[in-house]
Structure formats: C-alpha cells, structure tokens
C-alpha cells in the first residue's frame, strides 16, 4: 500500500472493517486489534519505518512517530511543528467532533504547553521561574516524611497494595505541598484526580472538585503570598491573570500526578520482579535512581503525547507530511527504537537520552520533581520493608491501556509486619530497642544471670579511672576482613577527650541526597 500523506485524507468506505484496519487499510490505535499497542507499534515500524499513518477514534487520520531521532527532531523544531491544534486539518474541516474522546487532550488551551513565540516565553518563563524556587533538599525531606506516613498505614499488616495505597497517594501529597495547599491532600483529592483522568461518568464532577481547590488556592495567594510555587507564579513579572494561574496549576498538578503515579508503579514493579534490578539493588551494584531511570526507558509514564501539528509541508522519517497534519509524539516506541537500543536487555545506566519527559521548548519542566518522588519514595519504602515481595504471580498483574498511557492497576505485596515509625527520624528496618543498662563488672567475678540493677543506669557506670570491659564487636560484612586482635579498652577519661568521629564523606553525601 502507499504511505504518502494522501493516506491521511481518505473517505471512510461503507461496511465494518476487520482486524483493526480502517479506510485505506490503515491501522487503528483503538478497538479490536489494538489491545497490545506495543506489538502494534512494532508492526507499524516494520511496515512503514520510523513514521507511520494510523487512525484515531472515529477514524480520524494521524501520524505516529516511532523513531527516537524523528521524535527528537519534531519536538526540537518549533519552526515546523506546533502544539496548536487550531491548525489541525481534520479539526478545521469539522471531521473531529466536539465530543471526540481525545478532545480533552487535543483541544487548544491558553497554557504554555500549547502556546508559541512570545506568549510561550511569557507563560513558560513564569512556570520555569516558579519551579526554580523549589528547594531540592526540603522537597526530598518532605517526600521522605510523606512516604513514612503512607507506610505507617499498612506496615503492621504484613501486606499492602502498592498502587492504590502508595503510588497513587505519594505524588498527590507532594504536589499539594509544592503548590502550597497541603491541607487539600486527602483520599478524596486522590480519588478526584484519578477519576478525572480516567474520563468516567463522574469525571466532570471530579475535575470540578480539583479546580475548586485550585481556585481557593489562587485567591489566598493573591491576597497573602507565601514561599510556595503558587505564590511565585502569582508574583511573577509576567503578571499572569487568575485564570492563567489556575490553568497552569491544573496543568502542573495533573501532568505531574499522572506521570509520577505511573513512574512510581513501574519502578516498584521492576525492582520487585526483574531479576536484574532485584539482584543488583541487593548487591549494591545499582542505585534506586538508576533503577528509576531504567524504568523511564522501558516504561515511560506517557506512551504518547497529543499532539504536534505540521505548520508547513515537510518530510519526516521518509514520509511527506502536509501542512495541518497531526503527529503523535510517542516515547514508548521511540525508546525501543532498534537504531538506539539494538539489545533491549542491555541496561541503560547513566543514559538519560530517553523520551519520557519530551524535549525542546515543551520539555517537562517538573521532571526533577518526578524523579525525586520516585527516587526517595522507592528507597524509603525498600528500607522500611526490606523483605517486601510480590504477593501474586507476575503474569497475574493487570494494566489499563490507552493510547496515552499504560497504568498498572494493582501491585499486591507481602512482608513481615513492621512497627510504625516516627516520620521525623531516619529510616530503619524496625523500631530501635531501648538502651541496655551498663552493669559494673569487677575483675574475676561474673554477674548472676538475670541480674537487674535497682538503681538508674547512670549510677552503675564505672569510675572514670576504671577501664570498661571490652564489648563484643559487631559482625562485619563478609567482604570486610575481621581484625586480627581486639584493641584494649581505653580509660573513660581518654575517650571523653576524643572528638566524635564524623560520618564518612560518602555517608554524608548519601544522607544529603536522600533528604535526611
């Protein structure tokens, strides 16, 4: 069959097409035959190359960009490709109805992700400047404490469902804090965000619930600015109106929430099921941030992004693109382009060239927040529950799949029940035992078994001039040699004169990175 741009302008023939094919034999990205989009993308790549003609709902024509280089060229060339759907030929011609299922994603809005030129600079500049005021260390500390609160909800039960009880909650708790409305975070806000993004029958009411919270926040910060994202957005020299502030808060909240929920779910699943990650994490050969980055390559939070539109006749990936054609930016197939990753089993440690956060003028401005939530959240959870493991067969895991994303529905796990912990302290595998009293030991004598001192431990310390008995050394990891001889105990007075030993530079760097 031909694959030129005229394929995108065929009239639908009568009759019911079969096997996921529509007018002109083009493949549909929805309905029967599109259950496994990853497999469909590979079929399209083999047939058409890095750019393929497809059909969206109602058989609306579209290009899907499958190649890594082609995706990057498209998002980095604003002179040829725009996010403004008002130039999309099917929309101009009336082929896309107002109630089209994808209109919420495609319809133009007065926000930075759809703007161009000076207007894009004004709106995007305000968002980027507000993002730059977020302190990374304080953010990581808040993520850690929020993780501890969530783990405390289920740690004593010995089982949990990490999507509904963890991955869907942590990003919302953190984003409400970042925006400046931590009091709005609750189960209802989480449910409203999930419901609005799913497009259910109650999605409009759920969307309104979120927007009412953002409207209250905008009004409060306009009257009384504070040191948070919303206040900096309100006070930016770009002078955003209340409507512009509210719409950008909605954009940041929904985009960051959906992307990070998927990222957290995927990263947790990978470290629990993939032997490469499980063995390397336990063996210390892979850090959690490296595992998260691998997840961004293999399962980007958004499979495709709607959409880019050709501003002029051009060529991309061997296809002639006409002015007004629509193109899907597609991180999922782009990340597995065989020209970039000939061996998908090879690790991608240290390589951030994936498409998960887009690129060019519309690159995700909040990607560092998403990475921080995943890095700190996964690390803190694994520290609290080091024996956590999947509570079902891996093949029993289920996803909801759409053109836009692939969302893990549940991730059931089990572990040995753990006590709750104070969210303000560093993570530990369990509750700290109470300090044991130091008993006086006279040389040549042995305390009676089970002897308990009647006086407080402080009164039982040996005199300063007396040497304390040697203690049993802690077990060392197998790779560290045991000392040949236990050092003789020093007088207490000499020990008191010694300054406290500082943690190693690596220990302090690690603590700083984790936000403690």
**Which strands sit side by side, in order, in the main sheet?**
1-2-3-9-6-4
Mean pLDDT: 82
Rg to the nearest angstrom?
A: 28 Å
Structural class of the secondary structure composition? alpha+beta
Number of helices: 18
Shape: globular
| Low-pLDDT ranges | 1-7, 9-19, 429-500
Main β sheet profile: 6 strands, mixed
Bin the helical content: 40-55%
Q: State the distance separating the first and last CA atoms.
A: 60 Å
| Beta-strand residue percentage | 5-15%
Please give the number of β-strands.
13
Give a brief outline of the structure.
The protein is α+β, with helices and mostly antiparallel strands. Helices cover 41% and strands 9% of the residues. It contains 18 helices and 13 strands.
Protein architecture, described:
By secondary structure, this protein is of the alpha+beta class. It has 18 helices and 13 strands. The longest helix is centred in the middle third of the chain and has 32 residues. The radius of gyration is 28 Å and the shape is globular.
